[in-house]
């Protein structure tokens, strides 16, 4: 999944056109005209220089490879700065793509292919020009069995890449899916010499580890140490620095990642001045622990930045491959046991809202009764779907008066009884007398953060007679167990998307459920979901896309495959006062990527948001 997240960071949009254009948009026109000078949310005069030091951007505590596209091992953070794609998007449009490696784009009238012409200035870090052969090689590797299953699934609908001439590449598609030109344009491109030995033999793609990637991006790897630190240096010969899509970006001379063993060590290191910026995901830390002398003196600044991203789904993921979870009534009972209101009040300082959709905070979220367009997708599967799917989306349980956890647990107990689980002999048991036992899996770096939250949840489950054990393992083993689907329940944050597409096949498609390392951690196999996903992929208008996404959201939420957790509509960022950022904020952005791509060292501007 980390590799897929990297690919998604490259990917943006398409439009129906038979003539070469500088940019494309999924539905409509790009925001910026052909002669635009830079994106609105950058400072074109930002000074260059300095070393930005960052900590773990996620749960990763060590790395053992530079190849983010394969399943084996853990890839280093920041590798996206090395790889570029044919197109790149803007952070103030939902779905747009502007030429990067490509200087024009031609979508066939039947939409069964797209052709890109390569910018003649584009070259790799080793000085070689970027050619159509390199683009084809990149696709062939990402579609091969040597790539992670999520890569294969994501690029599956691209039939092939055809080298038209050294500077022209054509992608051919299985169907006229409007997202496919976007997927092709967003594909990361690397040199065909990556993995090539001096004697001409080649290292298998899935065996490439610390062989330095040959990319065309603004940064190259300067050094690394013990799988815990890595330094990127701006390529002095970077070819694209004057492109409108790059003006005002990549302002740091060096970017360093230091990986800490857990969240506590990471936070204390920031307060000690060991790195420059911290994106805070823990409400308690933001209120109680991101404080001290450096904050009081103004050396460290705390600020919340609004964002308009879809929040994505975060929650306790339930593995349907385990027999005790296959009854939807059992899964709904697990949802009823989580007391979000108590957690928000006692642990989160009322900073969060409950997630009630796979697409919360966007117009992709299903609301009210199904529309005629949604019903057209749902009706053929009425006999297979819960009748509740044809009503309003489920409301997440609440303990706000007159509601209570006791009332929710009574309802959960009734659901469990209907599913054949009753309390006797000191435990919840099925008809064969087997106790209901589950393990919550997590990685050690997040254990301190999740322990008080899990304590409330496991106490409620214990009142139902469910025996819960907590297993904390190091990140490498955690990822290995996820890849093998070897877990009962674990906490996952699924990345948000503004335009759902091929990544949904990897998360929910029946085929992905049997592919180790895929994003279908739930193990969902549903003909109805597969049909809705097909309609989503073939949507020819924004309205059709919304109908398909709403229908998908209804089925998923009524399936109770995840116990939803919580979200915030802001990015909480603490940073040194030597850092500065553009006055105008983007709309759709990840905080870490925004800092890396548009901030600089200098005087902090007055807030203008």
UniProtKB/TrEMBL annotation:
> Can you supply one Gene Ontology CC term for this chain's record?
ATP-binding cassette (ABC) transporter complex
What is the superkingdom listed in this entry's lineage?
A: Bacteria
An annotated GO BP: microcin transport
Gene3D superfamilies linked to this entry: Dipeptide-binding Protein, Domain 3, Periplasmic binding protein-like II
Domain named Solute-binding protein family is located at 99-510
GO molecular function terms attached to this record? peptide transmembrane transporter activity
Signal as UniProt keyword: yes
Annotated signal peptide = 1-20
* Keywords for the protein's UniProt record, in alphabetical order: Signal
Q: Would you tell me the protein name for this molecule? A: Solute-binding protein family 5 domain-containing protein
- The species is Paraburkholderia caffeinitolerans
């Amino acid at each position: 999944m980390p590799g897929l997240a990297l690919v998604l960071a490259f990917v943006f949009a398409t439009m129906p056109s038979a003539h070469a254009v500088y940019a494309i948009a999924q539905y409509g026109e790009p925001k910026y005209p052909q002669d635009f000078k830079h994106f609105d949310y950058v400072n074109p005069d930002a000074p260059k220089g300095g070393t930005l030091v960052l900590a773990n951007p996620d749960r990763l505590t060590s790395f053992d490879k530079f190849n983010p596209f394969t399943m084996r091992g853990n890839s280093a953070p920041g590798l996206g700065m090395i790889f570029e794609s044919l197109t790149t998007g803007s952070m103030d449009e939902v779905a747009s793509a502007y030429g990067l490696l490509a200087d024009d784009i031609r979508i066939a009238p039947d939409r069964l292919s797209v052709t890109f012409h390569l910018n003649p200035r584009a070259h790799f870090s080793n000085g070689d020009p970027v050619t159509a052969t390199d683009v084809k090689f990149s696709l062939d590797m990402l579609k091969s069995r040597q790539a992670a299953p999520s890569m294969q699934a994501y690029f599956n609908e691209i039939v092939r890449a055809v080298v038209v001439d050294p500077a022209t590449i054509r992608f051919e598609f299985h169907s006229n899916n409007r997202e496919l030109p976007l997927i092709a344009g967003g594909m990361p491109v690397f040199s065909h010499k990556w993995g090539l030995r001096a004697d001409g033999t080649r290292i298998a793609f899935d065996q490439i580890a610390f062989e330095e990637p040959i990319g065309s991006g603004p940064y190259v790897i300067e050094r690394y140490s013990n799988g815990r630190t890595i330094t990127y240096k701006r390529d002095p010969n970077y070819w694209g620095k004057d492109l409108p899509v790059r003006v005002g970006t990549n302002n740091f001379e060096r970017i360093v990642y230091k990986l800490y063993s857990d969240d506590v060590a990471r936070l204390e290191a920031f307060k000690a001045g060991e790195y420059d910026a911290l994106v805070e995901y823990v409400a308690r830390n933001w209120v109680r622990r991101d404080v001290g002398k450096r904050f009081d003196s103004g050396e460290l600044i705390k600020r919340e930045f609004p964002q308009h991203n879809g929040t994505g789904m975060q929650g306790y993921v339930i593995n349907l491959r385990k027999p005790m979870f296959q009854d939807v009534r059992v899964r709904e009972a697990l949802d009823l046991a989580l007391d979000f209101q108590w957690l928000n009040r006692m642990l989160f300082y009322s900073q969060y809202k409950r997630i009630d959709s796979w697409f919360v905070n966007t117009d992709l979220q299903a609301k009210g009764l199904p529309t005629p367009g949604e019903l057209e997708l749902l009706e053929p599967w009425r006999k297979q779907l819960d009748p509740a799917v044809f009503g309003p989306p489920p409301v997440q349980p609440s303990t706000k008066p007159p509601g209570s956890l006791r009332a929710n647990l009574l309802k959960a107990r009734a659901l469990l009884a209907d599913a054949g689980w009753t309390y006797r002999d000191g435990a919840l048991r099925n008809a064969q007398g087997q106790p209901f036992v589950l393990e919550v899996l997590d990685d050690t770096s997040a254990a301190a953060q999740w322990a008080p939250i899990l304590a409330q949840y496991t106490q409620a489950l214990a009142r139902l007679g469910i025996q819960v054990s907590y297993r904390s393992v190091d990140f490498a083993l955690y990822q290995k167990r996820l890849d093998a689907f070897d877990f009962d329940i674990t906490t996952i944050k699924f990345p948000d998307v503004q335009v759902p597409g091929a990544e949904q096949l990897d998360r929910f498609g029946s085929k992905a459920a049997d592919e180790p390392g895929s994003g279908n951690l739930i193990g969902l196999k549903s003909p109805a979901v597969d049909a809705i996903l097909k309609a989503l992929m073939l949507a020819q208008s924004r309205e059709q896309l919304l109908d398909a996404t709403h229908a998908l959201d209804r089925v998923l939420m009524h399936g109770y495959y995840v116990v939803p957790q919580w979200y915030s509509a802001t990015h909480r960022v603490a940073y040194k006062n030597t850092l500065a950022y553009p006055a105008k904020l983007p709309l759709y952005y990840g905080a870490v990527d925004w800092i890396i791509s548009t901030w600089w060292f200098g005087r902090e501007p007055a807030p203008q948001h």
